[in-house]
Amino acid sequence: MGFWINHMKIQCFSLLLVLLCFNTSVNGSTRSYDKNLSVSYYADDGVLIHSNLVLKNNHKNAPTAILFHMAGSNSMGEYTGFSHELADQGYHVLAVDTRAGGGKFNQINKTVQHNSSLENSGYCEATPDVEASIRYVREHVSKGPVILVGSSFSGALVMNAAAKYKDLVSGFVAFSPASGPPMDGCEPEEALAFEIEGMVILPDSELEYGWINQQYMLFKEHGIKTMTVEGGIHGVSTVIDDRINRDVSSLRAHIFDLMKNMITDKEKKVVFSVDDWEIVTYERSALGSKMAILFNQAAGDSKQYLSTSRKLAEANITALRVDLRGHGESNNLGIFDPRIEDSKTMLFESHNEMIQIFQYVTKKLGYESRDIYVFSASYSSDEVVKSQKMLNLDVNHFAFSPGSLSSDSVLFISQSNHLVSVIKSQNERKFFANMFQEIGTIAPNVSQKIIDGSGHGVGILEQNPKFINEIIALINL
């Protein structure tokens, strides 16, 4: 597979020591990140909705799970345990008390408590509560994916909301979604007219009712994932050990995996306008707090990183694929052609869009520099360092076959406090061997990796598909 030359082992050991200084849980997540807040916001009809919010490090791009309860209930009580596991998975969690609630599960519904006129509200009347919660998350919590989770009547409401707000909602989980006369005007079947991603879960005993069985089969016909729980009980309680009187942790783990897929299977197109160029990027969200930015090589494009972005997201690392000016879909002003001398100016101005992308990632999405991992290839390696210097930004950097790192760039990375690695294949031109020697002399903190084969730039990853697993292990130390 190749070998690391010096320094990498030292950096890895240092990172390991840092990790051991923190109190971590069994699954590797810390509990010190959580902020547990009582929040309130208004529905469109003026009703004040009370909710509980668990924040993950105030991270602006983490996914959010919004939880809604069954009739006469409240989300804090009904989702006890389940909501904590979601937070440990990497979600912000908003547990909502809708107006159609009460005091089940030994907790108080604060929305009803503060407004007694809401007692005996109909199920469909809680629709504005669901919609207000989605808007609240988008405006005040996170720009990341949203998963709606509903129980009984709210299971139907989250299906409808997922259809109505497809641009804001990545998917839903509906436990025992209600139907029949009490749901007149907000039946979940109406959502099937739209392509929505989600899953329906209910106890096998509920299929004995004809209308529920018919509804369940209709969901399956429309591509909704379905699951029955043998000996289960109504609503989300079917996945709560103490209520179902058995260990159903494997069932919860399966649900969490499906929720994760709703997030990582999709890419969001984000376009930046820089120097009249339309710079096209694709963002694949993930559950973790780390971000990888993937810059193309000369005469390449970000599609070369498709497999890499999927693997990163599966490992809980959000990935942003970037087509730099003149490459891939960023071609509104022309296409880079190495045979044309004037075309090369595109290459050496790419740091301009990198600056804007770094600002987007740090300011809008809220990533700390220590959690940003840049993949560059060929010419884009030096452009990355140029942009870092202009922003005075220190990030982690994997440079594949760096084309021509200037002396200033080598000096800059020599002062980095983060992981910097240069990578080439065994059989690349002597030019790269000379550059590696220079980097080793001026920047001894920079680790070097030599990979078997003759791949160049992103081609190293394409020729050595397992190598990304080694990089992911370093990122997730």
**Rg on CA atoms, Å:** 25 Å
End-to-end distance: 20 Å
Q: Could you state the oligomeric state of the chains shown?
A: single chain
Total individual domains: 2
CATH superfamily placement of the largest domain = Alpha/Beta hydrolase fold, catalytic domain
Q: Segments where pLDDT lies below 50 for 5+ residues?
A: 3-33
CATH class descriptor of the largest domain? Alpha Beta
Question: What keyword list fits this structure?
Answer:
single chain, 477 residues, alpha/beta, Rossmann fold, 2 domains, nine-stranded mixed β-sheet, 33% helix, 22% strand, disordered N terminus
Would you write up a description of this structure?
With 477 residues, the protein is an alpha/beta fold. The protein has two domains: 33-264, Rossmann fold (3-Layer(aba) Sandwich); 267-475, 3-Layer(aba) Sandwich (Rossmann fold), CATH 3.40.50.1820. 33% of the residues lie in helices and 22% in strands. The protein is built from 16 helices and 17 strands. The strands form two sheets. Strands 1-17-16-15-14-12-13-11-10 form a nine-stranded mixed β-sheet, sandwiched between helices. An eight-stranded mixed β-sheet has the order 2-3-5-4-6-7-8-9, with helices on both faces. Helix 11 (351-364) packs across helix 12 (380-391). The longest helix is centred in the middle third of the chain and has 16 residues, at 249-264. The radius of gyration is 25 Å and the shape is elongated. Residues 3-33 have low confidence and may be disordered.
Compact overview of the structure:
The protein is of the alpha/beta class and 477 residues long.
